[in-house]
Design goal:
2 domains, Immunoglobulin-like, 10-stranded mixed β-sheet, 35% strand, binds copper (II) ion, 5-stranded mixed β-sheet, 4 helices, 27 strands, alpha/beta
């Protein structure tokens, strides 16, 4: 089976460009690792129950994040296990009809306290590894928390539902990120875990390839350096292509003259939020507020909280942060800074490691 899988990946290589191929090989290697010891044979209800892996997003492939479940749909027999492997900032909300809000602001001591929705952050419903017999369940986030052991990046359920049942699930954080699984009759022959893993790699590969092409086009168009126009220069934060989010600023280098401004904006149909910040504050996305006998309140940490108002004038040595700029369809926020002094101003997105840019300010 290993040989077959490698051949499948190899054959695909001819169809797609190098970056994409690297991504495929990367995912293929990952899945091979996960799959050691599993059987991949097509079978009607096997004597032993199978374990299927669904990848929940993918991160850091050619500067893109893939906002999709892979495979997007899956057939299982009653008694099989489904393991969702969470790669990045995603959750799995099983039996959901619609996503819940990421940020809620309940009144605490008479004042609204913005915080991450605990229904997204923490697991609920059947515990990982136990039977699923319907209803809603949540995986929680694979989010490292100060002072806590690293969370498990996987959520497993033994599917104990009648054949003919379809189970829908989604990621509450990323609009349109959804998947489903169907329980089929024991007599029906379905793909085995290895074939499902290859299918997942193919689906990721298709998204990654489309994103790579779009990124190359945007990079070429921007030639990495945009001259200022009428003292107003724009920088695009990322680009969402199908189910892929490109995590780059376009252009990477922006050159302006002292006293001019830069406006950061989203591309069309953006879904992935970003920040424009300096200095980088990695690992400070949330500020947990402990609660007795309950999981902590996850208030927005300095990395994602707004520190600088749009329109502010920046001088040499100033720090700034837009806070989380969240694109809402038809309502895409922008962030503008005016640079008073000549100098080099590197900046980052605090939400995405490796997403950075630089503003070069020349003398008037
Ligand atoms: Cu970002």
């Amino acid at each position: 089976m290993k040989v077959k899988q490698r051949m499948a990946i190899h054959r695909l290589g001819f169809l797609f460009p190098l970056r994409f191929r690297l991504a495929l090989v990367f995912i293929g290697t990952l899945t091979l690792g996960v799959l050691v010891g599993m059987t991949g044979a097509r079978s009607a209800r096997a004597a032993a129950a199978q374990t299927y892996v669904v990848q929940v997003g993918a991160a850091n492939i050619s500067n893109t994040a893939l906002l999709q479940f892979a495979p997007g749909s899956l057939k299982v027999h009653r008694g099989d296990t489904v393991t969702w492997v969470i790669n990045g900032f995603h959750n799995v909300h099983i039996g959901a009809t619609k996503p819940v809000d990421l940020i809620i602001a309940p009144d605490v001591n008479g004042k609204p306290l913005p915080q991450m929705n605990p229904q997204i952050a923490f697991p609920y419903g059947p515990k990982s590894g136990s039977a699923y017999q319907g209803g809603e369940a949540g995986s929680g986030l694979a989010l490292p928390m100060p002072g806590s052991p690293p969370p498990s990046p996987a959520y497993s359920l033994v599917i104990d539902m009648k054949p003919g049942t379809s189970i829908a699930y989604l990621c509450d954080i990323h609009p349109g990120m959804a998947g489903s699984l169907t329980v089929v009759e024991d007599s029906e022959t379905i793909p085995g875990p290895t074939e499902v893993a290859v299918q997942a790699a193919v689906e990721f590969g298709a998204s990654s390839g489309a994103a790579s092409q779009a990124a190359l086009k945007l990079e070429a168009e921007g030639t990495h350096i945009t001259p200022s126009t009428n003292g107003k220069t724009t920088v695009q934060m990322g680009q969402d292509v199908g189910r892929a989010a490109i995590l780059e600023f376009f252009p990477y280098v922006t050159v302006i003259k002292a006293g001019e401004s830069v406006t950061w904006k989203f591309g069309e149909s953006a879904v992935e939020p970003h920040t424009v910040s300096i200095p980088p504050l990695r690992g400070q996305e949330v500020s947990p507020i402990p609660q007795e006998g309950k999981p902590p309140i996850l208030a927005a940490g300095p990395a994602l909280a707004p520190m600088t108002q749009s329109g502010t004038t920046i001088k040499n040595g100033d720090t700034f942060s837009s806070g989380m700029l969240v694109p809402v369809p038809g309502q895409l926020p922008t962030f503008t800074l005016t640079f008073a002094d000549p100098g080099v101003y590197p900046y980052v997105c605090n939400a995405h490691a490796g997403m950075n840019g630089v503003v070069v300010v020349l003398a008037k």
